[in-house]
Structure formats: C-alpha cells, structure tokens
C-alpha cells in the first residue's frame, strides 16, 4: 500500500484528494500548512509527499527544500494551479519527480501512485 502525504492549504482540495487516493487503495495523511507537515513527516516516513506550491505561510518551495534537507528517500510531487514553465523547471531542479496541475482526478491520481511504485 502506497503511503501518501498531502499538503495543501485548501481544506476542500485536501478532502477531495484524500477521497480520490483512498478510493485507489492508498494510505493518506494530510496537513494544511508547512509547519504541521514538516512535524508529521519527521515522525513517520511516507512514500510520497504531494505538495501544493501556492500556500499562505511557508510556500511549497520552502517546504520542499526542508523536506529534501531531512529526507533524501521521500519522493515529492507537486499538485498546483501554477502553470508557468519556469515554476516546473524550478521544482525539477529542487528534486521534485513530477508536477501535476489541479484539479486532481482519478487518472492523475493513478499516474501519481504508479510513479511512486517505480
């Protein structure tokens, strides 16, 4: 079973994405801010962190950098409304393995799960 950690400051997105991943058999934990996410990620390993970029407080770039400093084995993917190519390149340079645009649907979620299993 794939263990996915969702990070998004939108509660409705978190609920919807959790529902989709659980329907595909994933185990899901979530947080709505970077500080909470980093605290939880230190306590338990996950196969994947799926992170929004545009958040209040610590944005996704800051959180990704901190996750990479603490864990080199956790895969990170981005799920964001930001469609700029520069943003995609920046996340790739930071070690993000894939970038998806919102909204999440079952096909994207399955692609994400498959990417974790590789």
> What structural class do helix, strand and pairing data support?
alpha/beta
Strand order of the largest sheet: 2-1-3-4-5
**Roughly what percent helix?**
40-55%
Number of helices: 5
What this model shows, in words?
The radius of gyration is 13 Å and the shape is globular. The protein is built from five helices and five strands, in the order βαβαβαβαβα. It starts with a strand and ends with a helix. It has a single domain (3-117), classed as 3-Layer(aba) Sandwich (Rossmann fold), CATH 3.40.50. Helix 2 runs parallel beside helix 3. It has 118 residues and is of the alpha/beta class.
List the helices and strands and how they pair.
Blueprint lengths: L2 E5 L3 H13 L3 E5 L2 H10 L4 E4 L8 H11 L4 E6 L4 H9 L4 E4 L4 H12 L1
Parallel strand pairs: 1-2, 1-3, 3-4, 4-5
